[in-house]
Design goal:
6-stranded parallel beta sheet, single chain, binds zinc ion, 36% helix, 4-stranded antiparallel beta sheet, binds (4S)-2,6-dioxohexahydropyrimidine-4-carboxylic acid, alpha/beta, 357 residues
């Protein structure tokens, strides 16, 4: 491929630790092809998919089906995660004992495992089998009592289990000062914990935005805690939590927003332009570190391996237009927002997977 990259900046392609495509069961929101196109348009060449599909992904066979379809489309590599309890029933762990070694990540994905003994057994199994638990401890909005307290307890419990069993734990969409403090403490105590924040929890505050998303948009104080966490290195990665929904489903109150295509622009504008953080740190958060967490580092970043790159324009402002997104859904609260850091082209394995018009 010959590209005139005059004036653009070339970066390693992005790796998304947390993404919801909707196959099987909810393909009217997103399918593997539209999800792949959206990811490529956002500069991603690898995404890690959550299992809240229909049926829930509780088996290696279902995960392999999704990964195979994505490979056939060829625009974006995927890992499909598997549920911690079968069909998110909160108790059955039988499937974990027979998972093949290809399954490296399991998650409760917003369906918290309330029973401590069940979660402890899950962590113990994961240590033996070298599986990483991805925790959505902050998706407890449905809790019948004080949900913020319920979330903090879930966060602390999971960090505690990680320390006790030395199980690799990845905390998804960390969005509060309290959760980040708990994670920092767990890291200091030697727990193998990593964590991600989302672009929308860095960009929006709850005094100006009431878009429905899980975890909810938080206070300005929480946002400044996340940015401090990025500066000090407590935050490992930025992940999109790309959550496509139809207009009808949003009207019914479903939580989530699409995020693949706006992630780099939002983060570059907020963190580099406004907060003065170096571009190298953003690359670390969106590419290098997520690749390491997913165990891809050698495949992606060393000389002689896959040529996965993204070309970005850091100088020309552009306006987000939700109708122009490649995702099947347009639940995008950034519509009309002006950003820097437009993705101009994505190259995966030396092939062009996206080029802006
Ligand atoms: O807002 C959200 N929507 N947060 C999640 O973690 C799940 C997601 C979805 O699947 O729609
Ligand atoms: Zn979640
Ligand atoms: Zn999610
Ligand atoms: Zn539309």
């Amino acid at each position: 491929v010959v590209l005139d990259a005059g004036g653009l900046t070339i970066l390693p392609a992005f790796v998304d630790l947390h993404c919801h495509w909707r196959t099987p069961g909810f393909e009217y929101k997103e399918d593997i092809e539209t999800g792949s196109r959206a990811a490529a348009a956002g500069g991603y060449t690898f995404v890690n998919l959550m299992p809240n599909t229909k049926p829930v992904c509780s088996s290696a066979a279902q995960a392999a089906m999704v990964e195979q379809k994505a490979a056939e489309i060829g625009l974006c590599d995927v890992n499909q995660t598997v549920s911690i309890t079968e069909n998110f029933d909160g108790k059955t762990l039988d499937h974990l004992k027979t998972l093949p070694a290809t399954v490296k990540f399991i998650t409760e994905d917003g369906h918290g495992v309330q029973d401590n003994a069940t979660m402890a057994r899950a962590f113990a199994i994961c240590t033996q089998r070298d599986i990483t638990v991805m925790s959505h401890a902050e998706d407890m909005e449905i809790s019948p009592w004080d949900y913020r307290l319920a979330e903090d307890i879930e966060t602390v419990r999971n960090c505690w289990l990680s320390e006790y069993y030395q199980t690799k734990l990845h905390m998804c969409h960390v969005s509060t000062r309290g959760a980040l403090d708990a994670i920092q403490m767990a890291k200091l105590r030697g727990a193998p914990v990593t964590c991600e924040v989302t672009p929308h929890h860095l960009w929006f505050t709850n005094d100006t935005c009431d878009y429905r998303v899980n975890p909810p948009i938080r206070t300005a104080d929480d946002v400044s805690a996340l940015i401090d966490g990025i500066r000090t290195g407590v935050v490992d990665a930025i992940a999109t939590d790309h959550a496509p929904h139809s207009e009808e489903d949003k009207l019914k109150g479903m939580a989530g927003m699409v995020g693949s295509e706006t992630a780099f622009g939002v983060c570059y504008t907020k963190l580099c332009k406004e907060e003065g953080l170096p571009l190298e740190l953003l690359v670390h958060l969106m590419s290098t570190r997520p690749a390491e967490i997913l165990g891809l580092a050698k495949g992606r970043l060393e000389p002689g391996c896959d040529a996965d790159f993204v070309l970005v324009d850091l100088d020309t402002p552009y306006t987000v237009e939700k109708e122009k997104l490649h995702s099947k859904s347009h639940n995008c609260p950034y519509d009309g927002v002006q950003l820097y850091g437009k993705v101009c082209a994505t190259i995966k394995g030396g092939e062009l997977t996206y080029q802006a018009d």
